[in-house]
């Protein structure tokens, strides 16, 4: 009777071992099936596989069998790519917004910045001188202002050449135009003026 009990225990142990081996053999296949079904097999509008978790039918809550799907080979490649990247160490890390690397040509040259600043200051100075002579030349010289023909920087500030109508005539091509030089400082303040010459408006040569 003891022998029969031992045989029964041995038989039960063999059954357990066989069931354990059978479970171990089928477990990887079951896990692989579970992994392949864990992700929705539908395609997005960009042609990529949907990243949402799949339900029992293999689709997420937004897709169904009427949507385009990925093939089994594509699904396998999609699952293998993250693993390959992790093994090779070539995982692309997301960049922070606004931190793109600058190339050598995009770096700022201090000399170029200084040149731009100087150019802007010179333009601002010319505009200030032009506004000053336009508003004051007529009252300063005592004749009707006609135009500005030259503005140039000097060691002490600026030099402007303006034209005024010294005498009106009919036709206006016979108007007598006087050319005057006005001296200004760096702040566009007038310090003096003098007449350079006179000419008829319609003449190509100077009138004396």
Automatic annotation (TrEMBL):
InterPro entries: DUF5763, Gas-vesicle_GvpO, GvpO-like_N. Transmembrane segments: none annotated. Residues 70-79 have a biased composition (Polar residues). Pfam families: DUF5763, GvpO. Residues 1-30, 42-55 have a biased composition (Basic and acidic residues). Residues 80-89 have a biased composition (Acidic residues). GO terms for biological process: gas vesicle organization. Residues 1-113 are annotated as: Disordered. This is Gas vesicle protein GvpO. It comes from Natrinema hispanicum.
């Amino acid at each position: 009777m003891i022998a029969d009990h031992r045989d029964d225990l041995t038989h039960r142990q063999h059954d357990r071992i066989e069931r354990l081996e059978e479970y171990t053999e089928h477990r990887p296949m079951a896990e692989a099936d579970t992994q392949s079904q864990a992700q929705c097999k539908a395609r997005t509008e960009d042609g990529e596989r949907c990243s949402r978790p799949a339900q029992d039918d293999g689709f997420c809550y937004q897709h169904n069998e009427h949507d385009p799907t990925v093939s089994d080979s594509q699904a396998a490649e999609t699952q293998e790519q993250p693993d390959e990247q992790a093994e090779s160490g070539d995982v692309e890390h997301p960049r922070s917004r606004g931190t793109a690397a600058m190339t050598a040509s995009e770096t700022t040259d201090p000399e170029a910045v200084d040149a731009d600043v100087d150019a802007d200051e010179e333009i601002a100075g010319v505009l200030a001188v032009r506004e000053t002579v336009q508003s004051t030349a007529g009252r300063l010289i005592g004749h009707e202002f006609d135009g500005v023909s030259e503005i140039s920087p000097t060691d002490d500030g600026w030099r402007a050449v303006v034209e005024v109508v010294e005498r009106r005539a009919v036709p206006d091509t016979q108007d007598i135009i006087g050319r005057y030089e006005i001296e200004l400082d760096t702040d566009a303040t007038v310090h003096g003026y003098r007449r350079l010459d006179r000419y008829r408006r319609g003449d190509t040569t100077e009138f004396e």
